User: What shape does this take?
Amino acid sequence: MTETEYIIECDNLVKIYKTDETEVMALQGMDCKVARGELMAIIGNSGSGKSTFLNMIGGLDRPTAGRLYVDGLDLFRMSEKELVEYKRSKVGFVWQNNARNLIPYLPAWQNVQMPMLLKKRADGKKRAEELLDLVGMAHKRHARLSELSGGEQQRIAIAIALANDPDILLADEPTGSVDPQTASYIFGTFQRLNRELGLTIVIVTHDLSVADKVSRVVSIRDGKISSERIMKTDYAGQLESVGTLDDTAGEAHFTSHEEFAILDRNGRVQIPPEFLSAMELEGNRVKLEMEDGRVVIEAPKKESKQS
Ligand SMILES: Nc1ncnc2c1ncn2[C@@H]1O[C@H](COP(=O)(O)OP(=O)(O)OP(=O)(O)O)[C@@H](O)[C@H]1O
Ligand SMILES: [Mg+2]
Assistant: This one.
């Protein structure tokens, strides 16, 4: 296997969900590259295909057409057995609601050790404690899951997702059920993991405050990437091991950004709705002109009423 610059590469990726009556095209020719060690967020309206995309990368479901490579591995060519191994070792998942991964009556450290028991890892207990430290939960290692807050449980879930040393951490709405302060803390935890472990992290979220915490925000519309923002970072300092919610010292602050619209392979680009309404179009025609190397899109001249 060769080391590629991009850990995730997809080209014209299509996912169609078929039910008895209908077909839903959840991904409509998605192109996306994620660099090794990138911390990226995906935003988009409900139903735009965010979870579908994450599930394809995570090997939880098979794409319908296109190309998808993760760490040089072709997700289309994997056998069922290879896919099981892939899910176990290459990717870690964090969800909005982690009840399905956590055992409420067991202490935090035993919950973290669980995936390692399955792998018969001898140093599982020590590793569990290291991981709890990494997510700032070492002080609660003996607490039962049921005694922890939603945000604390979420950090335990992150530690569990890291138990098998994945290369990529995928998080689907990880802050969907916590308050804004806890959300900020969880995003801060992702930042630390990204910087300290060089972990590639993809976060799907509705929370626009994530933009300050990642290096790139990609917007999905209708199963395709429509625009992206590249953030310019200005690190406030070194990240310390964090133990309390109000300790946000050393978080990276993104001071400015550049916004890009994404052309699809047919040369189409989506115009943001606020631009469109500002143009006050009457029909669906626009004038397209080249002006000093710039493409100008204009509303057609209104026809003057003849008397
Ligand atoms: N298992 C499935 N079977 C049929 N259709 C599905 C399935 N999963 C998703 N879809 C459809 O695919 C489209 C994309 O869904 P997806 O879950 O990826 O959206 P999303 O961007 O994650 O939305 P949300 O923000 O609400 O979580 C939707 O129209 C959805 O109804
Ligand atoms: Mg979703």
Remarks:
- DSSP finds seven helices and 13 strands in the chain.
- Residues 272-302 form one domain.
